[in-house]
Amino acid sequence: MLRDYLNVVQEALSAQKDIYQVKEQRLHLAQQEYRQLNDAWRDKSSSKTSCKTCDSIHVSVT
Question: Is 16 within a domain?
Fold first, then answer.
């Protein structure tokens, strides 16, 4: 009876470990996607700022 209980507990623990690993992988992917989107937004944002700066300099010089 004790062996049966320990087998059930071991299987449950193994299932919980698998669920934890999947959640950890999902978190890693979400963090990676966030970083990529944030970098793309930052690049696009700084690109627009640079263009506005270039335009204002061009207007001032002309």
Answer: no
